[in-house]
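Severity: low
Component: inverse-folding endpoint
Summary: output formatting inconsistent between runs
Steps to reproduce: submit the following structure tokens with default settings.
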């Protein structure tokens, strides 16, 4: 049974709801919550969903909720990232949704930057900034971010996933409109949601770094054949089921899908999965035949003893 530490539902809704799913991050979640408590903009609530943690994460977040009424904690059986985010969205009372993963950190001015931008751009419905990287050794990398010079939309997002949940803020009604996160997905849930949202909004850059993406042994993304095929599936579904074909240039669709399938085929080949490598490369060739695709197909057949 879920246990919820709830705020008074009759109180005035906050301006921002901060979503924080947590699963076995006892080593990090306290610091993440402290970075929310340190915000210079004070009109927020933090909705923490403990997604069936088996470490001390649940006790830690309950401790913070007992001390600050702006913190809401929901405990549920493990359902995965999408289910946890949907549970947080359902509990959120604010018109604006922001996200902070339980192993990341915000800079103190993050919510103030969002509020200032919204005051200056009342037409905006989805904001995004940049993020910095916090390495295991304590060093910080500060990449400049992408598309910070202009408003973007479905075409840019389809061409490359340039949005990170650490640095996005959008109207809650947008997520409600598309049905929230797809709980069937184990990876790529953010990309899938943002693609579906792109039918109803543009993406406004704030030009500010929101915080630190912590890099550690359990969250460093690994490129694999499987992850690239998942990405291809998301893109295919957006094109074929969610209106992408009508929104996007045909050349962009062919180029992007051919590239993703080629990468999947290359990674499967490195992993020794010849059958799946050939399957992915056939998809790449279907979208855009090229010499490099044909060459990799030849190499895969050679390694697999096929002609």
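Observed output (run 2 of 3):
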């Amino acid at each position: 049974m879920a246990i919820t530490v709830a705020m008074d539902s009759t109180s005035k809704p906050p301006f921002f709801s901060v979503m924080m799913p947590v699963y076995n991050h006892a080593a990090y979640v306290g610091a993440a919550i402290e970075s929310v408590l340190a915000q210079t903009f004070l009109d927020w609530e933090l909705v923490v969903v403990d997604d069936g943690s088996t470490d001390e994460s649940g006790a830690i977040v309950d401790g913070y909720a007992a001390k600050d009424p702006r913190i809401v904690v929901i405990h549920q059986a493990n359902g995965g990232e999408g289910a946890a985010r949907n549970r947080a969205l359902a509990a959120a009372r604010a018109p604006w949704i922001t996200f902070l993963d339980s192993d990341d950190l915000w800079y103190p001015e993050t919510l103030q930057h969002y509020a200032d931008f919204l005051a200056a751009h009342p037409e905006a419905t989805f904001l995004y900034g940049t993020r910095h990287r916090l390495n295991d050794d304590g060093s910080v990398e500060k990449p400049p971010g992408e598309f910070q010079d202009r408003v973007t939309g479905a075409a840019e997002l389809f061409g490359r996933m340039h949005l990170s949940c650490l640095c996005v803020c959008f109207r809650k009604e947008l997520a409600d409109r598309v049905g929230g996160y797809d709980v069937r997905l184990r990876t790529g849930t953010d990309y899938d949601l943002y693609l579906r949202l792109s039918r109803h909004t543009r993406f406004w850059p704030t030009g500010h770094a929101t915080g630190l993406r912590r890099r550690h042994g359990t969250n460093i993304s690994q490129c694999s054949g499987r992850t690239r095929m998942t990405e291809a599936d998301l893109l295919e579904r957006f094109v074929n089921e969610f209106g992408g074909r009508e929104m996007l240039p045909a050349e962009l669709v062919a180029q992007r899908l051919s590239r993703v399938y080629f990468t999947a085929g290359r990674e499967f080949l490195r992993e020794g999965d010849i059958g799946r490598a050939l399957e992915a490369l056939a998809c790449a060739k279907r979208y855009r035949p090229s010499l490099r695709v044909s060459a990799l197909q030849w190499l895969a057949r050679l390694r697999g003893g096929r002609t």
